[in-house]
Amino acid sequence: MIAIIKYNGGNVNSVQNALDRLGEKSIITDDFELIKNAEKVIFPGVGEASSTMKVLKEKGLDQLIPSLTQPVLGICLGMQLMCKNNEEGNTVGMGIFNCNVRKFPPLDLVPHMGWNTVSDLKMPLFSEISVENDLYFVHGYYCELSEHTASVCDYILPFSASLQKDNFFATQFHPEKSGKFGSQLLKNFLKIEL
Predict the structure, then answer these.
(1) Which residues are catalytic?
(2) What is the pLDDT of residues 145-193, one digit of tens each?
(3) Residues 111-147: pLDDT tens digits?
(4) How many angstroms separate the CA atoms of 31 and 5, rounded?
(5) What does the alpha-carbon distance between residue 131 and residue 134 come to, in Å, rounded to a whole number?
(6) Per-residue 3-state assignment (H helix, E strand, C coil) for the chain
(7) Which of 30, 79, 96, 110 keeps 20 to 30 A from 62, CA to CA?
(8) CA angle 112–117–119, rounded 5-degree value
(9) Number of domains in the chain
(10) Rounded to whole angstroms, how far apart are CA atoms 189 and 40?
(11) Which residue, 87, 43, 76, 46, is CA-closest to 62?
C-alpha cells in the first residue's frame, strides 16, 4: 500500500488519481501506523509553507516524516518543506535535505508555471526520462543547488528540480501533472527497492 500524507496541503487527490491510473492502491492518511507501515510514502503539496508546517507540527508529522525508512517522495511544497529553511513565511523546515528555499527574484516571470526541461539527471527516478522531456512546474520559491541536487532546471536561475538523499526523493515539478513522463517517474518510484 502507498500512503499519501494527509494535511492541509492541496493536490493529494491528484496524486491518488495518478496512482489509480497506474493500478496502484493508495490511502490518504495522517495515521502514524499506516504511514510507518506503508510500502512507499508520498508527501505532496500545494500551499503556503509556514501555515503548512504549523499543521505538520500540530499532527507530529514533522517528526514522523524524517524518521521514515521506506522510499519517500516529496512533491513541490512537500519537497520544499523537507529542506532546512524556507523564505516563505520564514519557515524552518524538516532539514532532510541540506539546502534552503528562496524566493525567485521579483520579475514578471514569477511564478514559474508551465512546462520546462530538466538537466543533470542523477537519480533512479529518471530511468526512461531524458533531458528533452518536459515536466510541469508551478512555484514561486525554489530549492538552491546543493549536494542533494538530483536534477537541475534553469528558470531565471538554475535551481534544484529534484533532490535525493538516502531513502528520500523529491521533485519540484508535479509528476502527477506531467503526462507520460510524470507517470514514468511515479512508476520508477514504485519500483525502488531499498
Answers:
(1) 76, 174, 176
(2) 999 999 999 999 999 999 999 999 999 999 999 999 999 999 999 999 9
(3) 999 999 999 999 999 999 998 899 999 999 999 999 9
(4) 9
(5) 8
(6) CEEEECCCCCCHHHHHHHHHHCCCCEEEECCHHHHHHCCEEEECCCCCHHHHHHHHHHHCHHHHHHHCCCCEEEECHHHHHCEEEECCCCEECCCCEEEEEEECCCCCCCCEEEEECCECCCCHHHCCCCCCCCEEEEECEEECCCCCEEEEEEECEEEEEEEEECCEEEECCCHHHCHHHHHHHHHHHHHCCC
(7) 110
(8) 115
(9) 1
(10) 9
(11) 43
Write down how long the chain is. Answer: 194
Q: What's the CA angle centered on 131, arms 46 and 164, to 5 degrees?
A: 50
* Pairwise CA distance, residues 147 & 178, whole Å: 26
Nearest to 124 by CA among 51, 68, 188, 76: 188
Closest to 189 measured CA to CA, from 127, 131, 138, 137: 127
C-alpha cell at 190: 514504485
Residue 137 C-alpha cell reads as 512546474
Distance CA 92, CA 19 (A): 30
Cis peptide before 175 (omega within 30 of 0): no
The set of cell numbers assigned to 147 is 549536494
Domain assignment of residue 37, given as a range? 2-191
